[in-house]
Amino acid sequence: MNIAVVVGGASGIGWATAALLHARGASVVIADLDFAAAQQRAADLGERARACEVDVTDESSVEALFAGVVAQEGPPGTVVECAGVSVPGAITDLDLAGWKGTLDVCLTGAFLVMKHAGRVLQDGGSITTIASLNGRQPARGMASYCAAKAGVLMLTEVAALELGVRGIRVNAVSPGLVDTPMTAGVGLVPGLREDYLENMPLGRAGRPEEVAEVVAFLASDAASWMTGATIDLNGGAHTRRYPDLLAHIAAMAPDQH
Ligand code: NAP
């Protein structure tokens, strides 16, 4: 049986991915900073699902996650790294803690997951990272997130180079705007969601389940010759421009900007 570890699996894209991999027969470990949510999700899935607490910014925590999976389920065949946060702010305003907070979770977290997953993955297994449209499309006010996700894309390629000798495939999915708890704030800024949608040829945000389908494809034998690749999944938003987050925020409070 395929053993799948979904990091950041208690919410949004990670949860949709965990549920889909489980529905397709995998034994799933839902690992998340929010352990209570992960436990609830594992209970929702029932058999072949277990929750684990992990903080991807803490190496000992990530190491313990994979040691525990090997001890309890066996070497995983599929690892998906979905943990992410975003701290917005113009470069000239963004404090160092905000910069580091995003880099620590999105980029260092991806590195630590690859490091410790890569040591225990079955030969022929796969790692899929969730990068972002912002890994290649800049957005005003999103410097730390854009830089982190660009780093994830290159990290994915390097990992593909290094792990290919064991038949391990490492790929990235780069979504545009997907409706999840992470993006709930978009609707609070007047006009921002409309701006996103205007810049998507398909005219709507994505659903977590749509991203999960692509992750499940990359993790499957159907993608057996794909590694070091990125799949864009954004309603066509990469063909246009990214919304000007700073302009929208400034319009909310013109005296403060
Ligand atoms: P989400 O619903 O907020 O889920 C992210 C999960 O990661 C949450 O359960 C969160 O736990 C967990 N997490 C945060 N910090 C962590 C840490 N240090 N260690 C372990 N887990 C941690 O977000 P999402 O929208 O599904 O995002 C999933 C991934 O897709 C992220 O990498 C994100 O950058 C990327 N992405 C999202 C979109 C989008 O539009 N939604 C677009 C492009 C890329 P807490 O709730 O406790 O923080």
Detailed description of the structure:
This protein is of the alpha/beta class and 257 residues long. It has one domain: 3-Layer(aba) Sandwich (Rossmann fold), CATH 3.40.50. It is built from 8 helices and 7 strands. It has a 7-stranded parallel beta sheet, sandwiched between helices. Helix 1 crosses helix 7, helix 3 runs parallel beside helix 4 and helix 4 packs parallel to helix 5. The longest helix is centred in the middle third of the chain and has 25 residues. The protein starts with a strand and ends in a 5-residue tail after the last helix. The model has no long low-confidence stretch (mean pLDDT 96). The site of NADP nicotinamide-adenine-dinucleotide phosphate has 28 residues, from helix 1 and helix 4. The site of NADP nicotinamide-adenine-dinucleotide phosphate (NAP) has 28 residues, from helix 1 and helix 4. InterPro entries: NAD(P)-bd_dom_sf, Sc_DH/Rdtase_CS, SDR_fam. It comes from Rhodococcus chondri.
Write down the CATH topology: Rossmann fold
Shape: globular
**Structural class per helix/strand content?**
alpha/beta
Number of domains: 1
Radius of gyration: 18 Å
InterPro entries: NAD(P)-bd_dom_sf (IPR036291), Sc_DH/Rdtase_CS (IPR020904), SDR_fam (IPR002347)
Family: Belongs to the short-chain dehydrogenases/reductases (SDR) family.
Protein name: SDR family NAD(P)-dependent oxidoreductase
Keywords: Oxidoreductase
